[in-house]
Amino acid sequence: MSLFLQRRKAVSLAGYTLALGAALSAAPLLADDQELPSPEEIVARYIEALGGEEAIRAHSSRTVNGGVEIPAMGMSGQTTAYFIAPDKMIVKGEMPGMGENVQAYNGEIGWVENPMAGAQVLEGDMLDQMKRQARFYADLERADLFPQQTTAGEAEWDGQAAYQLDVVDVDGNEMSQYFAKETGLLIGAEGTQTTEMGAMEVAITIGDYEEFGGVLIATSTSTNLVSMAMEIIATIESVTFDDVDPSVFEPSEAIKALLPE
């Protein structure tokens, strides 16, 4: 693959890291002498660790500013993401010399735009995935997003003891998620991610939780694209709440031109 195509692919994938979260695979270790917590218990502890349902529902929009780095390609850039409850999201990223990359769902349509691939209205798996990523209260709606959840055992992820929760989403995609035994926080995940370039195996390490508006939010996400042997590092620099203008979700003229009359 040419350097140009590698850069194009990397820029397209980098935009997804703000809504996701990884490191190498972790093998489950079954507990010998203690009963494993149920999926409901793991999730309940996770919600409390974040600050609790009341704190999460206290906000109805947020603005997230951060950076994205692709070390193997010497690329870095800035990202801004806007979210409004219940399900609106737009992520804008820009890397020097590569232009702006946009991924969005406004409650009705999903789309992506970048200077090299142009404008695209999403359909099928990519649209479904964008809808899930846009869920403002996703942590509180896991039963809807993951109808099948099973405690697989104990595991080690990024040097931390964890419980492995194997989940299946509403589209049948399988993923393993890792919750730290000490804190209850989500620290990793691995599975298949649908992108503009097709389905890819990813491993995600999530960490450096900080409090914003009474809620803990992970400020670092390292995503390993297994098939490409490439790492994308996303960092969050600031989060503000209840300050998003709904007009930011208006599609561009290029996207509007692709919509049916």
Question: Overview of this structure, please?
Answer:
- This protein has 261 residues and is of the alpha+beta class.
- The protein has a single domain (3-256), classed as outer membrane lipoprotein receptor (LolB), chain A (Clam).
- It has helices at 3-14, 39-50, 53-57, 124-134, 142-145, 253-256, and strands at 61-70, 75-84, 88-95, 99-105, 110-114, 118-121, 148-157, 160-168, 174-180, 186-195, 198-212, 215-225, 230-241.
- The relative contact order is 0.22.
Layout of secondary structure:
Elements: H1 3-14, H2 39-50, H3 53-57, E1 61-70, E2 75-84, E3 88-95, E4 99-105, E5 110-114, E6 118-121, H4 124-134, H5 142-145, E7 148-157, E8 160-168, E9 174-180, E10 186-195, E11 198-212, E12 215-225, E13 230-241, H6 253-256
Antiparallel strand pairs: 1-2, 1-13, 2-3, 3-4, 4-5, 5-6, 7-8, 8-9, 9-10, 10-11, 11-12, 12-13
CATH superfamily: Lipoprotein localisation LolA/LolB/LppX
Biggest sheet overview: 13 strands, antiparallel
Low-confidence stretches: 1-13, 18-33
Relative helix content: 10-25%
Number of helices: 6
Radius of gyration: 18 Å
Strand numbers in spatial order across the main sheet:
6-5-4-3-2-1-13-12-11-10-9-8-7
Strand content: over 45%
What's the β-strand tally?
A: 13
Task: Please identify, by name, the CATH architecture.
Answer: Clam
Structure classification: alpha+beta
Indicate the CATH class. Answer: Mainly Beta
- Order of secondary-structure elements: HHHEEEEEEHHEEEEEEEH
* Intertermini distance: 39 Å
Oligomer: single chain
Give the rounded overall mean pLDDT: 88
| CATH fold description | outer membrane lipoprotein receptor (LolB), chain A
Total number of domains: 1
